[in-house]
């Protein structure tokens, strides 16, 4: 039976977390802070848990440089939950700001991979039968060589924003396809005063993001920021609105209470029982990142780990074939193929023998995917790199 130290887990999410974080988490689950009770066994309204959640939010704000204009919400529902809550809440805010407008409201989606594509699909579904329509301002597949792959992000002057969108949505890192915006979203391309929404589920805390440029930034915690169960949502405060009042103006969907950003903000993310253990683990993860140089340090590590791996791929005389063009390659999810299924199997077997696990690509894309999240150390990445050199 392998030991934790014998294995490097390259899973795409949920994914590996620092062992020291998990050891503390395990201890806290049994006996938090000498209470004789675990952190998930006490009231979420107790002073002990309040302290946990306040410190978690405060450390997250520090790590993300969250300005005073924005609020942090600890929610549930994962990344996919946020596909819906973003639409519902931002449409309500839009309606209150544009009550008289008879013009059709549009939501612009920048589709660069499977997740933004899913998000656009959910927006279409939620707005069926309303005055709202979804404009896919970019479908990156149309800019790929085979016309069907997510393999690059074309420059913003080739996108087609609508005239006055209620928001523009993008996914900063596409986990399945291994596509990431180069450094950041091209903010200068946006129509003036546009609400920008970012899904950062799979590259959160791996590089700086300018929160002030966004209406909403959100991510499921289970990759760089903790375990599944917690969704971190940063919302600009003017978007925390009375969604019932907005609904009464007509033309937009009603917002379930549990999806309502203002309700969560007004109740300091304790409107109902929050995912207490997941919050605790995220708090420990944030503390760990802060104690090890913060986002700047993890950003440098991510650059080093991924560029070394891409170098091996690019210098393999075609054995390893990258799926994504260099300027849009993800630092978190390195996606590539081998010449045939047989060689791919041999590669995975070889890796497995060395304890290098979970390298199989997503079923929709195939090939190999090595996820290099914050929990993967540079030594861990080096093990894979050495294996790939010797396999070649
Ligand atoms: C970029 C991105 N967005 C959204 C999701 C969906 O997240 P969840 O499974 O937490 O709903 C994922 C999941 O891996 C993801 O990688």
Automatic annotation (TrEMBL):
GO molecular function: O-phospho-L-serine:2-oxoglutarate aminotransferase activity; pyridoxal phosphate binding
HAMAP family for the chain: SerC_aminotrans_5 (MF_00160)
Top-rank taxon: Eukaryota
Enzyme Commission number, as recorded: 2.6.1.52
Protein name, entry field: phosphoserine transaminase
PANTHER family: PHOSPHOSERINE AMINOTRANSFERASE (PTHR43247)
Keyword set includes Transferase: yes
Gene Ontology CC terms: cytoplasm
Co-factor(s): pyridoxal 5'-phosphate
Pathway terms, separated by semicolons: Amino-acid biosynthesis; L-serine biosynthesis; L-serine from 3-phospho-D-glycerate: step 2/3
Gene Ontology BP term (one): L-serine biosynthetic process
Keywords, comma-separated and alphabetical: Amino-acid biosynthesis, Aminotransferase, Pyridoxal phosphate, Serine biosynthesis, Transferase
Annotated Aminotransferase class V domain residues: 7-384
SUPFAM superfamilies according to UniProt: PLP-dependent transferases
Catalyzed reaction equations: O-phospho-L-serine + 2-oxoglutarate = 3-phosphooxypyruvate + L-glutamate; 4-(phosphooxy)-L-threonine + 2-oxoglutarate = (R)-3-hydroxy-2-oxo-4-phosphooxybutanoate + L-glutamate
Family: Belongs to the class-V pyridoxal-phosphate-dependent aminotransferase family. SerC subfamily.
């Amino acid at each position: 039976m392998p030991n934790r130290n014998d294995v490097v887990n390259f899973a795409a999410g949920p994914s590996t977390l620092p062992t020291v974080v998990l050891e503390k988490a395990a201890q806290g689950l049994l006996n938090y802070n000498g209470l004789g009770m675990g952190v998930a066994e006490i009231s979420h309204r107790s002073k002990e848990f309040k302290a946990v959640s306040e410190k978690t939010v405060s450390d997250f704000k520090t790590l993300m440089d969250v300005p005073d204009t924005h609020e942090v919400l600890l929610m549930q529902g994962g990344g996919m939950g946020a596909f819906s809550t973003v639409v519902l809440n931002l449409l309500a805010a839009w309606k209150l700001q544009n009550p008289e407008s008879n013009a059709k409201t549009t939501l612009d989606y920048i589709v660069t991979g499977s997740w933004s594509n899913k998000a656009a699909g959910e927006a279409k579904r939620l707005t069926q039968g309303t005055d709202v329509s979804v404009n896919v301002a970019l479908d990156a597949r149309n800019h790929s060589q085979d016309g069907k792959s997510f393999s690059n992000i074309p420059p913003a002057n080739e996108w087609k924003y609508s005239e006055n969108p209620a928001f523009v949505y993008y996914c900063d890192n596409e986990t399945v396809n291994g596509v990431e915006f180069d450094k950041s979203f091209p903010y200068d391309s946006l129509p003036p005063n546009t609400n920008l929404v970012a899904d950062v589920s799979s590259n959160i805390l791996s590089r700086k993001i300018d929160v002030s440029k966004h209406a909403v930034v959100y991510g499921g915690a289970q990759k760089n920021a903790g375990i599944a169960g917690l969704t971190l949502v940063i919302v600009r405060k003017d978007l925390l609105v009375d969604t019932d009042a907005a609904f009464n103006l007509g033309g937009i969907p009603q917002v379930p209470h549990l999806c309502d950003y203002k309700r969560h903000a007004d109740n300091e993310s304790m409107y109902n029982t929050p995912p207490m253990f997941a919050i605790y683990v995220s708090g420990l993860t944030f503390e760990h990142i802060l104690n090890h140089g913060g986002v700047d340090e993890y950003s440098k590590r991510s650059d080093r780990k991924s560029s070394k791996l891409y170098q091996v791929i690019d210098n393999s005389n075609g054995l390893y074939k990258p799926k994504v063009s260099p300027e849009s390659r993800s630092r978190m999810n390195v996606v590539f193929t081998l010449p045939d299924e047989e060689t791919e199997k041999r590669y995975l077997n070889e890796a497995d023998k060395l304890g290098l696990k979970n390298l199989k690509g997503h079923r929709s894309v195939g090939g190999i995917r090595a996820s290099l999240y914050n929990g993967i150390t540079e030594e861990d990445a080096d093990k894979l790199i050495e294996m790939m050199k010797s396999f070649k």
